[in-house]
Specification:
8 helices; single chain; Rossmann fold; 5-stranded parallel β-sheet; 5 strands; 58% helix; alpha/beta
């Protein structure tokens, strides 16, 4: 059986990933493809417990190296439990964040650098790289404002505190944003950069065009 297709979506919180993943899944379904949707951190019972530690504001004292290690522990678990079995079964997997997020947030935002992130990826992710990464990168100020508003609203609606990263200063997010641009320039064959303050429909159109091209190449 041919291996499935692994698609990831990346960007700052507030870039519209959640909305676009739902629309992409619906687009795939209309064409007879059932997509397995997963998020990072999380996506497994163990991963959801790790997610609580990583995103809860009470974890403010978490060391950057410990933070990165938890990200990769979560990733190794979801690869073993969900992603790799689905790909081995020939399915399409759409993942909200993957190692690019760790390189951007911990490598860039926390100033740990790309080398340690990419080394851990090689060692812990079983050689698994996305076939296609869709990087949503609206203007920096727009993304940051959306992220902070969205997470505060989610806490009010669900009671879950996932605001630890949103308490960071703007300079942290600027480093994340710049690292994402660096990744896109470095990995042009894999990463499709969708930038600017586009409408939801305009972003969706660019996403499905890129996915359609990749599915043709994979067939």
């Amino acid at each position: 059986m041919p291996r499935g297709v692994f698609i990831t979506l990346e960007g700052l919180d507030g870039s519209g990933k959640t909305t676009q993943i739902k629309r992409l899944a619906a687009w795939l379904a209309r064409r007879g493809h059932e997509a397995i949707l997963v998020r990072q951190p999380g996506g497994t019972a163990i991963g959801d417990r790790i997610r609580e530690i990583l995103l809860d504001s009470r974890s403010r004292g978490l060391d950057p190296l410990a933070e990165m290690a938890l990200m990769f522990a979560d990733r190794a678990q979801v690869i073993a439990e969900v992603i790799q079995p689905a790909l081995d079964a020939g399915k399409i997997v759409v993942c909200d964040r993957f190692t690019d997020s760790t390189e951007a947030y911990q490598g860039g935002g926390r100033r740990l650098g790309s080398e340690i992130v990419l080394d851990l990826h090689r060692r812990l992710c079983r050689g698994l790289d996305p076939d296609l990464t869709l990087l949503l990168l609206p203007g920096f100020e727009v993304s940051l404002a959306r992220a902070r508003h969205r997470n505060l609203r989610a806490e009010a609606e669900t009671g879950r505190d996932e605001n630890r990263f949103e308490t960071e200063q703007d300079a942290f997010y600027r480093r994340v944003w710049e690292k994402y641009r660096e990744i896109a320039a470095r990995d042009r064959d894999r990463v499709v950069l969708i930038e600017g303050d586009l409408t939801v429909d305009e972003v969706h159109e660019q996403i499905v065009e890129s996915v359609a091209e990749r599915l043709v190449l994979h067939a």
